[in-house]
Write a structure and sequence with these properties.
The protein is of the alpha+beta class. The chain is built from 9 helices and 5 strands; from the N terminus they run αααααααααβββββ.
Length: about 260
């Protein structure tokens, strides 16, 4: 495969990313924020969270919005919902120390582990955890553009410029790595449904009905995170850390 064909294939990895707030949504965000700051009871915080969530459901991909939604749930003691909101916010604000601290607080309060193990892939794509969803695609576009410019410049005139050609190949490798990184995150965000248990003492079962035997010896508690494998009627087939699988009621969790 030629250099330019490889470069063009890497560009196909660029998907459309989310959008920010328009004027009406910005006003809605400010109103929700005012309600949050004025809240004094659990019900007040839940109402503020509902306002933030309504904006999110309209397609707004704001890390600040999701962060504030998580804060509302923390104030009302809804650890599962808070973790879900913070997890989504991290996609857009991965370097926010306050967000990371609040996520850690919610996980600890729910009795979940804060430490996350890293795989070999995480070390190879070391920027994966500190670049946002949109930044990954921005870096990919930049690297691909520079690679193409270096390749074109290396062919200027009769004589080729070896240094520029080597640079072009280095940039191509970087483009492919960034494309891999962006594709992994796109798959995680767009193709994978995550979830968090929001109720206590949830019995995961071996099938999609109460008549099935429990899948685990102990029930699940609020804050337990999982990936959805299947959605059947009012039941979710979930996969927990450690490759544990079971079925739980849809009403016992929040999905994102």
């Amino acid at each position: 495969m030629s250099f330019f064909r490889m470069l063009m294939l890497s560009l196909f990895l660029l998907p459309a990313c989310g959008r920010g707030l328009d004027l009406d949504e910005a006003r809605g965000f400010e109103e929700a924020q005012r309600n949050f700051l004025a809240a004094q009871s659990e019900q007040d915080y839940l109402e503020s969270a509902a306002r933030f969530r309504a904006l999110s459901e309209r397609g707004v991909t704001s890390g600040a919005l999701l962060y504030n939604e998580g804060n509302c749930y923390v104030k009302s003691g809804r650890w599962g919902e808070a973790i879900a909101a913070y997890r989504r916010a991290v996609r857009y604000r991965p370097r926010d120390p306050y967000l990371r601290d609040n996520l850690g607080y919610a996980l600890t309060s729910a009795g979940q582990s804060v430490t996350e193990s890293k795989s070999l892939l995480d070390h190879v794509l070391f920027w994966q955890g500190w670049t946002s969803y949109g930044e990954k695609f921005g870096l990919l576009a930049l690297a691909a553009t520079l690679a193409m410019l270096a390749a074109l410049m290396s062919r200027v005139g009769v004589r080729r410029i070896p240094a520029l050609r080597r640079t072009a190949w280095v940039l191509l490798v970087l483009t492919l790595l960034l494309g891999w990184s962006a594709t992994l995150q796109a798959f995680d965000v767009e193709m994978t449904t995550h979830g968090v248990v929001t109720a206590d003492d949830v019995v995961a079962r071996k099938g999609d009905a109460e008549s099935y035997e429990p899948a685990f010896s102990t029930p699940l508690h609020a804050g337990a995170e999982f990936v959805v494998l299947e959605h059947r009627r009012e039941w979710l087939h979930i996969k927990l850390p450690g490759d544990l699988e079971g079925w739980i009621p849809v009403s016992a969790a929040v999905q994102y």
